[in-house]
Amino acid sequence: QGYEGLVEGGDNIKQANWLSVSNIIQLGGTVIGSARCKAFTTRAGRLRAARNLVEHGITNLCVIGGDGSLTGADIFRSEWAGLLEELLQDGQISEEVARQNCRLNIVGLVGSIDNDFCGTDMTIGTDSALHRIMEVIDAITTTAQSHQRTFVLEVMGRHCGYLALVSGLASGADWLFIPESPPEDGWEDLMCERLGE
């Protein structure tokens, strides 16, 4: 469950083995869970997360997420030595454990269906999102044709129109709105004229 799992610990942290990962290759990455974690935004929450990692002897962390997740990872990494020192002073860990876990290695992977990170062809989640969008479009296209109706489909992408643009191109959409190119004044009349044709 992301940082929530780090903070809560317990059954949220477990070793993956062949049995636990069997039959998940066809599932989306969210099979490992995802959660917003307010506690991790506080030092107290990150202290609990550090305690749980040290308890399991984990010093390598792979963070998959967007801006919030990766910013949190950077803060966690920068505080790591101080967090261990605090745990040591509180008697929660020994000097030996602190020494064995003195370095936290983090790999950050951009997980954003918006495909809005430069330097990579496609961020984690984009391809799956596009497949789902195209499945929906394929399903409603015949209905739209048989009923001679126009359907409006909204896809995710708060500040990034990648999913809308690519799925619009792939499906032959008649009209498209993307945040990078807001519509000009009078777009309503132009759209109605285009659809009327």
From TrEMBL:
Domain Phosphofructokinase positions? 1-184
Q: Could you tell me the keywords of this UniProt record? A: Cytoplasm, Glycolysis, Kinase, Magnesium, Metal-binding, Transferase
Q: Which GO terms describe its cellular component?
A: 6-phosphofructokinase complex; membrane
Pathway(s) where this gene product acts: Carbohydrate degradation; glycolysis; D-glyceraldehyde 3-phosphate and glycerone phosphate from D-glucose: step 3/4
UniProt cofactor(s): Mg(2+)
Reactions that this protein is recorded to catalyse: beta-D-fructose 6-phosphate + ATP = beta-D-fructose 1,6-bisphosphate + ADP + H(+)
Q: Which domain of life is it from?
A: Eukaryota
A single GO BP term for this record reads: canonical glycolysis
Matching InterPro entries: ATP_PFK, Phosphofructokinase_dom, PKF_sf
Coiled-coil region(s): none
Any idea which GO molecular function terms this record carries? Answer: 6-phosphofructokinase activity; AMP binding; ATP binding; fructose-6-phosphate binding; identical protein binding; metal ion binding; monosaccharide binding
Protein's recorded name: PFKAL protein
Q: Please give the organism.
A: Notiomystis cincta
